[in-house]
Design a protein that fits this description.
The structure is a homodimer of 410-residue chains. Chain A is α/β, with parallel strands linked by helices and 410 residues long. Chain A has 13 helices and 13 strands. Chain A folds into 2 domains: 21-280, Type I PLP-dependent aspartate aminotransferase-like (Major domain) (Aspartate Aminotransferase, domain 2); 285-409, Aspartate Aminotransferase, domain 1 (Alpha-Beta Complex), CATH 3.90.1150. In chain A, α4 links the parallel β3 (86-91) and β4 (109-114). In chain A, α11 (332-343) packs across α12 and α12 runs antiparallel to α13. The longest helix of chain A is centred in the last third of the chain and has 21 residues, at 285-305. Chain A starts with 10 loop residues before the first strand and ends with a helix. At the A-B interface, α1, α2, α3, α4 and α9 of A face α1, α2, α3, α4 and α9 of B.
Chain lengths: 410, 410
């Protein structure tokens, strides 16, 4: 028989999953309510309302999909892509490839634009490609955790709207940690993540989409067998969404006033998301973004003070993920496992072309706090000295403390 | 600002979601671990091992899909169905229709067999159809919560194996509450539910599949872009699974020793499932099934003592869901809302042809206990008397108590 769960209390400085807010963890202990219990449908509505505030939009259709972040991305893409649809995906890291991967599985005609990992696109480059390709959909990542870069979106969104193209944004890494303005940037559908800057466990994917997307979904709608009136049941809906679980037209009937049975909402995860959103809104979005920027500054000063180099173009740095170039002669994985074993700190490695070349340090949500930044800097210095790296001792934590002193004196 | 979560403590007697085990709720408060933290991968492995015991099989591939129960059904079906594949679905309630619905979305050539709701199939009828249709896949529901009926599977499984047909079983309602023998019944893939007899919140779908399914998945496999080595990347995998999130060939690499990044495992839900499985195995499967039978007997005696009639053929009754015919002249929905408002008890209505005709009472997992059965019977009697139903007063609880006295004296 396996023992009672008794885990080590890690300091999680990865780009997710990060430490969950203690209040969020406690909210999950709340006893179960039935999914159509009026108390529960109130909780659903409140969560939708708070999500709208976090996404900065007024879209009726703003709710979580019951699955991890990529479930939200797939729900959006599969619900709007029809075979042969032209989809343009500008790629600047791993998660751009994921969008291509998903779009291809729904038989899209995918056109990609690539730039070196560690950079983003000049919006003009993307706009030129949009005008050339004239896709039905442009899908792009806002914050690439694989590289620590963030793509400006506003100009691209404006051109998409002008040309009547649907603009889909993966904001999994950014929502709740840095500005994501769905309405202002003319984003038609966005996907957020729970286990990153919202500090809610993984397992739900908040999404939002506007009436332009809704119109398309209504054209493709098919009511589920077993719920539909048999006499009027549409057997032939040739454009039907090639997925049941992620069919957003059905999810609208579940989250909207119709309350048509679809899945059984993930009760405890919804409690968690509701509490996470309450915490975000209590702190206030502006204050929260400023907090993330402050800890990022302290982290960067500390890293540079110990002589490490940041990876990627600083002009497009994602404020919540800091990529560090692994110094010549240092085994990045050995450093990571020593950090975990001796200091109980988790940081991340990377994928694809950056595998073995960078470490990635997240400062997201509840993990983004002074204690964590200082503990990480002290530990990293100690581990590097232990590995005989030639770095100045004692500087990193001091540099970070300087940033904090200045911030606290304002 | 929305208030702190403060829900009513319901008595949940529906066919799910049911009350979660208090230990399960507490397990969800456990702090987050990173998904590749060795402590976490141990938790993944332990959960797989316990799931194998609950499914009574030895399949390596036994793990939860991160989504609600139907996510598990869709993961299995989309991973094995290719366009034009012949899929036979015998339907005896709503969730048979769901399997058709999902199979159609993946362009299967679906053949159905239907029987009236409230019955199941004589295995011989299904076997005759199998021999006539010769499908690639037979997909069937084990316990239909929509009608309260349970389909015998063993004979069907044997014929499927003989004819090299894949046998897929939706055991969402039955696993952990009544016998589900995956190996012995020659089930190739089964899907369980968390929010029913396992008394874990909704949001995960345990699945299991054997090497026959694995062989098919390996033929269809495509490694995800962004993870694959670009020089050997298979652009053309014509048989690839038309879904990324539910692609079981990728989930095998995530849950298996390869530990290839796919989604970010739903940490807290996995903690919950692990604890739920620990509780099931501590009680012991046989003892647990006997407990469910005992409370079912008490419930039935109570219901009949107040003059209500059970719905459906008693020979195929699902032990964990009891369907009651709504008496002539009684408004079933008014009774349900009075039960909820005054007694804080939730029971269920039904769907399709049974809408307005039956109530469904679940006795599942942690909700399946003496206090709940007695509270429900007393409350139901009171509400019916309040609605001027002509029923004998005071008999129901006594009849149930008689069952309990007898059981306790053994």
């Amino acid at each position: 028989m396996y023992k009672e769960l008794n885990t080590t209390l890690r300091t999680i400085m990865t780009p997710g999953p990060v430490e969950a807010e203690p209040r969020v963890l406690r909210a999950m202990c709340t006893p179960i309510l039935g999914q159509f219990d009026p108390e529960f449908t109130d909780i659903m509505n409140e969560t939708m309302d708070m999500l709208r505030q976090v996404f900065r939009n007024s879209n009726q259709w703003t709710f979580p999909v019951d699955g991890t972040s990529r479930a939200g991305i797939e729900a959006v893409l599969c619900s709007i892509i029809e075979p042969e649809d032209k989809v343009l995906v500008p790629i600047y890291g791993r998660f751009g490839h994921l969008m291509v991967e998903i779009a291809e599985r729904y038989e899209a005609d995918v056109v990609t634009l690539e730039t070196e990992w560690g950079n983003v696109f000049d919006p003009e480059t993307v706009i030129r490609e949009i005008k050339k390709v004239r896709p039905k959909i442009v899908a792009i990542v806002h914050g690439e955790t694989s590289t620590g870069c963030m793509q400006p979106l506003k100009e691209i969104g404006e051109v998409c709207r002008e040309l009547d193209i649907l603009f889909v944004v993966d904001a999994v890494a950014t929502v709740g940690g840095t500005e994501v303005k769905v309405d202002e940037w003319k984003i038609d559908a966005a996907i957020g993540g729970t286990q990153k800057c919202l500090s809610v466990p993984s397992g739900m994917a908040p999404i939002t989409f506007n009436d332009r997307v809704e119109a398309l979904l209504r054209e493709r709608k098919r009511v589920e067998r077993g719920l539909a009136d048999p006499s009027t049941y549409q057997i032939k809906q040739l454009r039907m969404i090639r997925n049941n679980y992620f069919d957003l037209s059905q999810l609208m009937d579940y989250w909207g006033p119709t309350r048509l049975n679809h899945h059984t909402e993930a009760t405890s995860m919804l409690y968690a998301l509701r509490e996470g959103l309450r915490i975000v809104l209590e702190e206030g979005l502006e204050a929260r973004f400023a907090r993330h920027k402050m800890h990022e500054a302290a982290l960067i000063q500390g890293i540079q003070a110990m002589g490490l180099k940041l990876y990627g173009d600083p002009k497009c740095k994602l404020p919540v993920v800091t990529a560090i170039t692994i110094p010549e002669g240092i085994d990045g994985e050995a450093v990571r496992s020593t950090l975990l074993r001796d200091f109980e700190i988790e940081i991340a490695s990377s994928f694809g072309p950056l595998k073995g070349k960078i470490w990635r340090v997240g400062t997201m949500g509840y993990s983004c706090r002074k204690k964590n930044v200082l503990h990480f800097l002290g530990a990293m210095e100690a581990v590097l000295i232990r590995c005989h790296a030639k770095i100045p001792a004692g500087m990193a934590v001091q540099a970070a403390l300087d940033v904090y002193s200045k911030a606290e004196s304002i």
